[in-house]
Amino acid sequence: MTAPPAARRPLIAIPARFSATTSALRYAAEVNARALIESVWRAGGEPATIHPYAPGGTADPAEVAARLDRFDGVLLPGGGDLAPHRYGHADAHESVYDVDDAQDGFDLEVARRALRTGLPLLAICRGLQVVNVALGGTLHQDMGGADREHRHLVHPVSVRPGSTVAVALGAERVEASCYHHQRVDRPGAGAEVTAEAADGTPEALELPGAAGWFAAVQWHPEDTADRDPANQGLFDALVRAAGRR
């Protein structure tokens, strides 16, 4: 794919992830994975990391709306776990990690706003879980221990023919690079599982009749997008949809 001139690149908002330490900075940082940024750039988009602002764990819907108005699309990336209370669990499993109330509150409001307005949205790993919770769905806090979780795992995923994800991938089967110990339990309102792993783990969610282009995948397509056209296709589809706005 030949990228358009920089001035015409659709602007893609990517909420930052909080990092306690980074190798190049002296203090805590807000970051996004380089492979993720490069995948959006390769697709012809202009990736823009944005600050997750949600004092007390609650983002102002009007403020989020105003901030997103300048963008052509949104990418919700991977990251730490959502706080279990966000989906109805009073107690956290011992494996839950890197919970941040501001991150949760901001990501959830971004997901709601994008889905409500039809702003093109690609959600990855934690991003898929955020969307599911934003729609009222629930998560398994832990998939069952080290012998059942999907960490440092590349495995085949079967995708529903004709689904948004299958069209973006150009395939009904994909090699998926995964890193997660949680998964969807109950899909949120209107959400459909359109891809699964061999063990039954939901690997993609879609919203039939969504206001705009939307796809969510549990795996990390950015891990292999530089050498796998199918995984790069998810970023290409997001940027194409953003360009049409």
UniProtKB/TrEMBL annotation:
GO molecular function, one term: hydrolase activity
Source taxon at top rank: Bacteria
Keywords (A to Z) from UniProt: Hydrolase
Any one Pfam family match given in the protein's UniProt record, by short name: Peptidase_C26
InterPro entries the record matches: Class_I_gatase-like (IPR029062), Peptidase_C26 (IPR011697), PuuD-like (IPR044668)
Name used for this protein in its record: Gamma-glutamyl-gamma-aminobutyrate hydrolase family protein
